[in-house]
Amino acid sequence: RFCLPLVLASLPTMATGEEIPPVPQDSWGDFWLFRFFVNAAGYASIVVPGFLLIQYFKRKNYLETGRGICFPVIISCVFGSEVKSVHQEDGSLPPRAEPTESSTARQVFKLLFCAAGLQASYLTWGVLQERVMTRTYGATETDPGENFKDSQFLVFMNRILAFTVAGLYCALTKQPRHGAPMYKYSFASLSNILSSWCQYEALKYISFPTQVLAKASKVIPVMMMGKLVSRKSYEYWEYLTAALISVGVSMFLLSSAPNRHVSTVTTFSGIVLLAGYIIFDSFTSNWQDALFTYKMSPVQMMFGVNVFSCLFTVGSLLEQGALLESLRFMARHSEFTAHAVLLSVCSACGQLFIFYTINQFGAAVFTIIMTLRQAFAILLSCLIYGHTVTVVGGLGVAVVFMALFLRVYARSRMKKRSKKLPPGETPVQKV
């Protein structure tokens, strides 16, 4: 909650950097698709040997025949204890504490604390993210400065701090007995770091407000996938809100197209990267839902995923020689060092606030807070970095967030109504 005042105090410094035109590339090494495949090759150099080892231990029936000092580690990584939870119907989070009538003031204070923590963490994170990826460092009257290019290093910075915070939390507090095989976290970890990488890279090609709106509209491909693949059915209000979101995003993008300012031109590369973010992020959440069938806490999930995230990113950075180059960039520009560290702190604290808010107040309250955060993030980005939004574009933003709030309201009404349904009747499947 103290991050936002700090970053607001440094806004003059953040705004001084020159904005980087998104299109020109110095070489093939700077092209995002080339870097994506190089990063993927680095991850494969770790995943493939790991996969072969897991298959070897399973074929050898190591669970029955193994022994020695490495036996507990291999069992934990490959087999786990296979203890699954049967107490959580949604398979995602432990039941939240219900507030009592005598502690209304306490609950209000908790809600304000959660809202302030989430807003401060993620608004600061958004401002810093745009500063790092779209502005130069070390610019003077004679020197244009240089920009930081390696998004994977930022992902590594975020994950190493999140790993540390989650590890300390698990060590200092009582946690459920862990039962999931450790290797299963690697799938969510891989998709998580790829989605984060796409999110950072997209800012080189599109504006931050465009990115926020695109992330807010990911409900549309989720519904389409559910309809085509899973044959799910949806309520009329879900189709209505999806249509409103489409209209709002279209209004914003079309109103920005005539203005050829580099910060508002949506390029094809930016669209592809945003699509990659949505695809990888959707896989992450679905795989984590499946992992929650094991008896574990959200912080244990955070720790397990970030263990592999650190392994993948540091391995890929070392193979490319990019880790030393990024560290040299940090040594040259102390301002970048402060931004990267604060970015990681906000990311780690934000994850803890997410777990605490959902546990205390449920998903509906959390969704409202985060939807407000998205609206504030667009406003803050426009104020600090001078993004131009036309009247039509502003109306499009308003339509998108009106649709998002309508979804939250309608979903809460449906949940209340489903509790009153007679036995045997089930509500329509929703996203």
Automatic annotation (TrEMBL):
- Looking at the UniProt entry, the stretches that span the membrane are 33-57, 236-255, 261-280, 301-318, 338-356, 363-386, 392-410
Q: Where in the cell is it found?
A: Membrane
* Cellular-component GO terms for this entry: endoplasmic reticulum membrane; Golgi membrane
Topology within the bilayer: Multi-pass membrane protein
InterPro entries per the UniProt record, alphabetical: EmrE-like, SCL35B1-4/HUT1
Q: From which residue to which does the signal peptide run?
A: 1-17
Q: Which family does it belong to?
A: Belongs to the nucleotide-sugar transporter family. SLC35B subfamily.
Q: What is this protein called?
A: Adenosine 3'-phospho 5'-phosphosulfate transporter 1
